[in-house]
Amino acid sequence: xxxxxxxxxxxxxxxxxxxxxxxxxxxxxxxxxxxxxxxxxxxxxxxxxxxxxxxxxxxxxxxxxxxxxxxxxxxxxxxxxxxxxxxxxxxxxxxxxxxxxxxxxxxxxxxxxxxxxxxxxxxxxxxxxxxxxxxxxxxxxxxxxxxxxxxxxxxxxxxxxxxxxxxxxxxxxxxxxxxxxxxxxxxxxxxxxxxxxxxxxxxxxxxxxxxxxxxxxxxxxxxxxxxxxxxxxxxxxxxxxxxxxxxxxxxxxxxxxxxxxxxxxxxxxxxxxxxxxxxxxxxxxxxxxxxxxxxxxxxxxxxxxxxxxxxxxxxxxxxxxxxxxxxxxxxxxxxxxxxxxxxxxxxxxxxxxxxxxxxxxxxxxxxxxxxxxxxxxxxxxxxxxxxxxxxxxxxxxxxxxxxxxxxxxxxxxxxxxxxxxxxxxxxxxxxxxxxxxxxxxxxxxx
Length: 446
Known about the structure:
Helix content is about 25%, strand content about 25%. By secondary structure, it is α/β, with parallel strands linked by helices.
């Protein structure tokens, strides 16, 4: 009897909370879980319609069930209700018949963030309503979407714009679109498809972060020019093939750069585009040189070492550098970078120092004529991955330890099957090298 009385006196305090607080609680749940609360009582039934952040994916639904689910939560929203975020990921072709109506519904609600990801047999052409959404601050597009912006674009508040594997009508249309984004700060154009054009213009006085990548190899029959006019840029990521990449102004505020530029190397000429690019980013603090760029630079050194040596800019702000080795990293190339980076504190080789899949004749011997200022004064940390124990690698490590007065740590990850001999024997040889810095730790792992 007492137990029955206690049960009957229970109070549903959660349901007594104000609607605004309950909606905030529901917004923390996955959309499917939030929708299930509508069966609790009449009190809970309409709350999901007031959610301002909606993320839909058809990966856990099938066919018409997914379409009806989105319709119920989106198209029945009260008129005038604003939305902060809308995300839609779908691959069923029948869903695309409803996509346009869904998008039109959300962009009319002062939408702040839009994310679309489509997997379909045909491209979905982004509707004009999106380009005229003046309230949107972030747009992220993925997959089978055709981007063909109209002349009247209204992106006055857009700060983040991301394109991933989408299709553009032309290279030139991108530049026209960016001119209508006055406050854009973050731009990504990665692995996209282009139907026409030959000139890509990336502009933006407010742009701070730029990512531009493509898996396409250079084509001698196709000429692509890339112009970058972004004076406030702080982060730059380029992994692309282009005949010419031109940065209009020296990037005074650049902090981080990843450069992996592929160019056609014509025998008897120096590929000047990469060197021109390096001169415009020489204020950078962290620099990562990709394997394609290293190959281009090596080819230039092989052709005309003196001209290239004089043309490499100083990097006075550079404190951290990573170098990806493709075939090899010529001693002159690395020496020039070290000589021109007097304040370098960290040096890393993520893919080792040599590529052992190539013949030994491709490699080099370390013969240093001088000691770079960074090595004798500032270089504190060196990390070498995929160490094979070749004489070239051992020579380089010996040189670092001998002249690295400021070294605090040199870490070496050896591969399991060394070219240079048994693992333990190579390790013992490394440990015998003289260390100029008495505080330097030599960490060897295998």
